[in-house]
Amino acid sequence: MHELALAERIVEIAEEAARAHGAAHVRSIRLDVGSLSHVEPDALAFAFDVVARDGIASAARLEIRRTPGSAWCGPCGRAVLAERLGDPCPHCGGYQLQVTAGDEMRVRDIEID
Known about the structure:
There is one protein chain. The chain has helices at 2-20, 41-52, and strands spanning 26-34, 61-67, 69-73, 78-82, 97-101, 105-112. By secondary structure, it is α+β, with helices and mostly antiparallel strands. The strands form two sheets. A three-stranded mixed beta sheet has the order 2-1-6. It has a three-stranded antiparallel beta sheet with strand order 4-3-5, with no helix packed on it.
């Protein structure tokens, strides 16, 4: 379950930001998680609750926004939406797709006080 390691790093980032700004609490963390990132949002939220339990982010609200995937199709030369890795191009049916977005995860913002 790599979501546990991701949750640990998210909490570290939030706690570092809070300390850098002299804050005592992390109120919320907003994430963008790509639909092609192999991250399961429910598992990440569960892991976050476990990891944040005893720290300054223990009461933090985790908001996860799924971002769409996109790819470039080599055979037909089009930019396409990609819902899942391994799906064919919706235009030509080819499988030579290069992911261009949706495989990332990033902390969008952190609310502290």
